[in-house]
Design a protein that fits this description.
The complex is a heterotetramer of chains A (108), B (702), C (289) and D (146).
Chain B (H helix, E strand, L loop, with lengths): L5 E6 L4 H5 L2 H9 L4 E7 L5 H14 L3 E6 L19 E5 L1 H5 L6 H20 L7 E4 L3 E5 L3 H12 L3 E5 L22 H14 L3 E4 L2 E9 L2 E8 L12 E7 L1 E4 L3 E3 L16 E3 H10 L3 H4 L3 E7 L14 H15 L6 E4 L8 H10 L3 E4 L5 E3 L5 E7 L4 E7 L1 E6 L1 E3 L1 H10 L25 E3 L9 H15 L6 E4 L4 E3 L9 H5 L5 E3 L5 E3 L9 H5 L5 E3 L4 H10 L12 E6 L3 H10 L8 E6 L7 H9 L4 E6 L10 H18 L7 E5 L5 H18 L8
Parallel strand pairs in B: 1-2, 1-3, 3-4, 6-7, 6-12, 7-8, 12-23, 14-21, 15-16, 15-21, 16-17, 29-30, 29-31, 31-32
Antiparallel strand pairs in B: 5-24, 9-10, 10-11, 13-22, 18-19, 19-20, 25-28, 26-27
Chain C lengths: L3 E5 L4 H4 L1 H13 L3 E4 L15 H17 L3 E4 L2 H13 L3 H13 L11 E3 H17 L8 E4 L23 H8 L3 E2 L18 H17 L4 E4 L2 H9 L1 H8 L7 E3 H9 L21
Parallel strand pairs in C: 1-2, 1-3, 3-4, 5-6, 5-7, 7-8
Chain D lengths: L1 H6 L1 H4 L6 H4 L2 H5 L5 H9 L3 H6 L11 H5 L6 H15 L4 H13 L7 H10 L10 H10 L3
The chains are: A mainly beta (108), B alpha/beta (702), C alpha/beta (289), D mainly alpha (146).
């Protein structure tokens, strides 16, 4: 179950060349639609659900659809990045919310 | 970091601060903090004695960082700048305006807040770096674009101050619109005498190089060293070299004086300009008066219609500034040439500020009729006379006038030259196509550093104000013509190890200060940069930091802030306040004793646009209950789009919070004017109440 | 060129101005323009503007939607109707207003309006779409030696934004050009923009008569063979009321008032019956000159 | 919609140049009709006086004022709105009642008489359709959420 780009939120990273999701995607799947200026995943079935793009998107425009092995429809996994931390919000199919904060090694 | 030596100085402000805040307790605590090697309390740090004490401690303890907890950092900047230590290693903590003064009745909470502030500043100062101004070499040559009265005067003033000046003009001759005039106002003297004097001064000044029939093709480089290519098209003009020659001029500063163009009243078909022979514009009038000896004396019944096209939402929405005086001048000339001429001026409002009022009075005294009321339509009768029918608003009745000549007082619009130049050198223009400036405080600046405006390319103005504006532009330009330019080291630095070259900073910089280096990384032109930090706020990777406020400092401050400093049940609001407006308003709230909840911890930022969404997210993640991002009202933003961008970014965070099943209200933007401390206090109060209703941030660690 | 249009008659033309309707239909036929009658068309909304402006807009919108449903653009004969429909068309570009109007149209059982209709006066259509050159090629009997005073009528080109600024509102020329295309001369007179005054006939009769009289006087003095109009209301003001106006001003007028379609039709070679000259109260006898 | 035009920002932008009155053909003949003054009165809150007076009925709706107003004030439309207000406050008042009854009874401002129908038939013109209730139905729909 791959990523989903919310078109209203995506601003193509303004530079209009290589958006951040394109740069970070290890499978080289994300790219910019040159007509709309919005990002999209060019091969959904190849997505590994690594969520790198979700994490890096400055507009919060990329959502992750959780694969059924892990969650099923309705379950959500939402990252929020700080400079040296990441906070995950996990929602299971019953709507139960849990949050985890971690230090990352991004710092300085 | 282990070997840093911080000196903490606490000021009682002649006992005032200490009345509310337990400074001794805080001093005691501070002395135990890592890196702190000295703590001193003084009754007046900004006095000569106080400064002496700081210097003494710096020597005695070998301090390399100084933390001053006293009044607002916006105050006493001069006293605390030169302490014998790099000024970027001096940190100020706002104990007075934003602590003791705004919570005078709650000593306990004021002390708790002061403790939190002090802790954050101690963390921030650990990452401070010594910075020195950068000196950039600059040429002593200036370029003036436009050889009208403004451009000529700018060239003369610049050369008079010692600069080499290239004055370029797209027409084959100098003089601009002024050379088409018959008389100046208010003195009614001929423009030729002034112009000839200016021309001879230009001729005789070896530092001024005039290029006529020349236009700017493009401009690159930065202030101090602009590289401008100039194309010269024909060879028939004085001093102009060969045909179609392109040359490059290196100039430290540019003065744009591309002038104006007359509004063409043809679209106002009701007045029949172009259809009726005896309907002319004020500029046609000048031409006829100059070229036909008897023109003025021949007229018998002349009508002037004011505001033709000006103050008209369908044409020029602005007042063109000069038309009232132009018509009064022309009416007076007619009356002088033929006292029997029944000159009538149909006006809407007569605008003759300052000395010009005397001319208006003279016009009235001379028997010129002024009728308040604008004709709606002109009709030409069989004899070729123009019948003017107007409702006289003062008399309350219709009057008719059969005129021999009707002069339409048409206004000024931006010239084609301005439009061309704006494209060639990337200048912003306003909605009326004049060159955009901060009209209120920096009228002579354009939106690009090192490029200034003089005369009507900025707004409609008359000859005397054009000349004046040329002087103002010159004074501003001289900073870039001294051989070198000193730049304050506040500019942003891009960490290219983190940068992913997404170009957001390049796109969002309001001053177009970013370009790419040879590897495609963004690099800032420190001469164009105004250190607003909008790039720092926008970088998705947090790779950009300002000299005086880095991402790591902000992050560190968030880490050490005790999110329960007022107790478990009190919300903590982190305020990022822009230094030009909101922070000053907060200070004023303190000075004026407007009570403000002690739940707000404020951090001064150069612009609300400098606050990165990652910092806001991180603050929420680390348990802050609410974020208040306060900037200028949109149109007043000192950095043009800072507030607007900040709002967009905040909306993104707010959306994210909603997705996370957190309350989107935990982030808020407020527009606070510099002079509105009441609004600031009210906003904070209201927000704190709202956050109490929302309850504690679930991410706050117990 | 698509030459099939919905003919919007309004309520004055088919009752008060048969000569206009007949001549217009015959001119259109002669030029190969198909005019379709939509029996469902109702009032344009103009008279209702003085009672309920939203109701007026609804009426206009309903007519626009009707034509749109058939895939036809609208051609009209009355300047008042056309101006009202055209203005509604511009107003409805506002999405919120359009949604509100469409909601109401639904409750009335009418189709929704989706911005897909153009609205033009027949004269504007001839000038803009059919084309002056094409018209000139069809002229078989040019009206040389005739001199007409054109009365446009206020709503012919105003409000200009409603009519896409197709003609100069202060000095309109399109109708002059059509009549000149028919071979006749037109008079350029300063009173050209005067209103016929019919709309205030009920409220201020004297005023209304004075306005009409001024123009009749101006054209009579300039030796016009006839006045040419493009709106049934103006015709009522100048033709039906001509005697009354004359009596009021102490003058005797005898100025024929023709519809532009009658003039063009004549130049196209149509017969007097086809142009319904019998209905003209003040007889037009150009031959007498 | 009525109130929007009368209270709107647009009207407040009037700077009293008098171009509307200067160009008004009605004013030329009847000097008591002064559009600029009427606009000013609205601004001063004298709506009642306007609605009850006969000035607003003198406008021919020729659009000259709207067309030339430098502040783009839709003067003609404002008069229509005033008339509509007057109508709403007193639907039976003289001036509109004849028009109203024709419209509401027949759906047409100019009702077709038997003679008219015959004339049309004779001339070979299509018969006029009757949609007598349309106007009142539209009025009801427009009023529905007021």
């Amino acid at each position: 179950m791959p990523v989903y780009v919310v078109k209203d939120k995506c601003d193509g990273c303004k530079g209009k060349e290589e958006p951040l999701c394109e740069q970070i995607c290890i499978g080289d799947l994300m790219t910019l639609n040159s007509d709309t200026g919005k990002a999209y995943c060019r091969s959904l079935r190849d997505c590994w659900d690594c969520m790198s793009c979700t994490k890096i998107c400055p507009k919060g425009a990329i959502e992750q659809r959780i694969p059924y092995q892990l969650g099923y429809h309705g379950a959500k996994l939402i990252p929020m990045m700080g400079t040296d931390s990441i906070t995950w919000t996990c929602v299971d199919i019953d709507g139960k919310v849990e949050r985890f904060s971690f230090r990352t090694r991004n710092k300085h | 970091m282990s070997d840093i030596k911080i000196g903490v100085f606490l000021c009682t402000c002649e006992g005032e601060i200490e009345k509310t805040i337990a400074l001794d307790v805080l001093a005691q605590e501070a002395s135990g903090r890592p890196g702190v090697v000295s703590v001193r309390k003084d009754s007046c740090l900004c006095s000569e004695r106080g400064i002496g004490a700081i210097r003494e401690d710096i020597d005695k303890f070998g301090l390399d960082r100084v933390l001053i907890a006293a009044c607002s950092p916006a105050m006493k900047t001069r006293e605390f700048t030169d302490l014998g230590i790099n000024k970027y290693l001096v940190e100020r903590v706002n104990f007075r305006e934003q602590c003791s003064r705004c919570h005078p009745d709650n000593s306990e909470n004021a002390t708790k807040k002061a403790r939190a502030l002090l802790g954050m500043s101690l963390e921030k100062i650990r990452y401070s770096k010594a910075l020195e101004p950068v000196t950039v070499p600059a040429v002593k040559t200036a370029l003036v674009v436009g050889g009208g009265v403004a451009g000529i005067n700018a060239a003369l003033d610049l050369a008079g101050a010692g600069a080499e000046v290239f004055l370029i003009e797209k027409n084959p001759h100098l003089g601009g619109k002024v050379s088409e005039l018959h008389r100046y106002y208010p003195r009614l003297c001929p423009p030729s005498c002034g112009l000839e004097l200016m021309f001879s001064k230009l001729e005789s000044n070896p530092r001024i190089h005039v290029l006529t029939s020349s236009e700017v093709e493009n401009l690159s480089g930065s202030p101090g060293n602009f590289s401008i290519s100039i194309k010269t098209t024909s060879s028939d003009a004085i001093k102009s070299p060969e045909k179609d020659q392109v040359r490059t001029i290196i100039a430290g500063a540019v003065v744009v004086a591309t002038g104006w163009e007359p509004f063409d009243p043809t679209p106002l078909t009701e007045y029949g300009y172009g259809r009726f022979e005896k309907v002319i514009t004020n500029l046609d009038f000048e031409k006829s008066a100059r070229e036909q000896g008897q023109f003025l004396a021949q007229q018998k019944k002349t009508a002037f219609i004011q505001c033709v096209g000006s103050r008209d939402e369908r044409h020029l929405p602005y007042c063109s500034d000069v038309c009232c005086m132009v018509s009064i001048k022309q009416a007076l000339l007619l009356k002088q040439a033929n006292p029997d001429n029944e000159v009538t001026i149909y006006y809407n409002d007569i605008r003759t500020p300052g000395e010009y009022e005397a001319v208006y009075r003279q016009a009235r005294a001379s028997g010129i009729q002024f009728i308040k009321g604008i004709p709606s339509e002109l009709r030409q009768d069989a004899r070729g006379k123009i019948s003017v029918s107007v409702f006289d608003l003062i008399a309350g009745e219709r009057t008719e006038f059969a005129a021999d000549l009707v002069v339409l007082a048409t206004g000024m619009k931006a010239s084609r030259g301005t439009t061309q130049l704006k494209d060639a050198i990337c200048l912003a223009t306003n909605k009326d196509d004049f060159i955009e400036s901060h009209l209120q405080c920096h009228p002579q600046d354009s939106q690009r550093e090192g490029i200034f405006t003089a005369g009507c390319c900025r707004a409609p103005m008359d000859v005397s104000r054009s000349i004046e504006s040329a002087g103002a532009a010159t004074a501003k330009a001289l900073r870039y013509l001294q051989g070198e330019i000193a730049v304050s080291p506040d500019y942003p630095v891009v960490d290219i190890l983190k940068c992913d070259r997404c170009k957001r900073c390049v796109e969002e910089c309001p001053f177009k200060a970013y370009s790419y280096d040879d590897k495609g990384f963004p690099q800032v032109d420190i001469l164009k940069c105004r250190a607003c930090g909008i790039c720092m706020g926008g970088c998705p990777l947090g790779a950009i930091s300002l000299g005086e406020l880095s991402m790591e400092q902000l992050s560190g401050m968030l880490d050490v802030l005790d999110k329960s400093y007022l107790g478990e049940d009190e919300p903590v609001v982190l305020g990022f306040l822009c230094k030009n407006d909101a922070y000053r308003a907060a200070d004023d709230a303190g000075l004026e004793g407007i009570p403000c909840p002690s739940n707000l911890i404020s951090i001064m930022v150069p612009c609300s646009g400098a606050v990165n969404a990652m910092i806001i997210s991180e603050a929420i993640s680390k348990g802050v209950d609410g974020i208040l991002l306060a900037g200028c009202p949109d149109k007043q933003c000192h950095y043009l789009q800072g507030s607007a961008l900040a709002k967009t970014r905040l909306a993104d965070v707010s959306n994210k919070l909603k997705e996370m099943y957190l309350e989107p209200e935990r982030v808020r933007f407020a527009s606070i004017s510099r002079d509105d401390p009441e609004k600031f206090a009210a906003t904070v109060k209201e927000y704190v109440e709202e956050l109490k209703q929302l309850g504690k941030n679930p991410l706050r660690i117990q | 060129m698509n030459m099939k249009y919905a003919l919007y008659l309004g309520c004055a033309t088919p009752v008060k101005a048969l000569k206009y309707e007949i001549s217009a239909r015959n001119v259109a036929k002669r030029l190969g323009i198909e005019l379709v009658d939509l029996p469902e068309f109702g009032c344009c909304g103009f008279p209702v503007k003085s009672m309920d402006r939203f109701a007026a807009l609804l009426m206009a919108a309903r007519n626009l939607a009707l034509a749109e449903e058939r895939g036809l653009d609208i051609i009209g004969l009355c300047t008042g109707c056309i101006s009202t429909l055209a203005e509604a068309r511009v107003q409805l570009e506002d999405e919120t207003l359009r949604e509100k109007v469409n909601e109401k149209l639904k409750t009335l059982g009418a189709a929704e309006y989706r911005l897909g209709v153009s609205v033009k006066h027949f004269a504007r259509f001839l000038h803009e779409d059919y084309g002056l050159d094409a018209l000139r090629r069809e002229i078989g009997a040019p009206l040389e030696s005739l001199k007409f005073g054109i009365h446009y009528g206020c709503h012919y080109a105003k409000p200009s934004h409603a009519h896409d600024c197709f003609d100069d509102p202060s000095n309109p020329v399109s109708l002059d050009k059509l009549i000149q295309g028919a071979g006749a001369k037109t008079i350029d007179y300063p009173e050209k923009n005067l209103c016929c005054g019919l709309t205030i006939r009920g409220a201020a009769e004297d005023l209304s008569m004075n306005l009409a009289g001024e123009k009749l006087d101006a054209l009579t003095n300039r030796g016009a063979d006839a006045m040419v109009v493009a709106c049934p209301s103006c015709c009522i003001a100048y033709e039906n009321n001509q005697q009354l106006v004359g009596r009021k001003m102490g003058k005797e007028f005898n100025l024929p008032v023709l519809y532009f379609t009658q003039v063009i039709g004549r130049a196209l070679g149509l017969t007097d019956e086809e142009l319904a000259f019998e209905f003209n109260r003040i007889k037009f006898h150009p031959a007498a000159r | 919609m009525n109130d929007e035009l009368i209270d709107g920002e647009q009207l407040k932008c009037c700077f009293h140049c008098g171009k509307c009155t200067s160009g008004c053909e009605v004013n030329r003949i009847d000097p008591s009709f002064q559009p600029h003054r009427l606009l000013h009165l609205i601004g001063m809150g004298a709506l009642d006086e306007l609605i009850n007076g006969d000035a607003i009925w003198k406008c021919t709706t020729c659009f000259t004022c709207s067309e030339r107003c430098p502040q783009r004030i839709a003067v003609t439309d404002i008069f229509w709105s005033l008339r509509a207000l007057a109508f709403r406050s007193c639907p039976t008042s003289g001036l509109l009642s004849a028009q109203k009854s024709a419209l509401f009874k027949t759906g047409r401002l100019y009702p077709a008489t038997v003679l008219d129908h015959k004339k049309r038939e004779k001339a070979g013109l299509p018969a006029l359709s009757e949609n007598a209730t349309l106007v009142s139905r539209i009025f009801d729909a427009a009023k529905a959420d007021r």
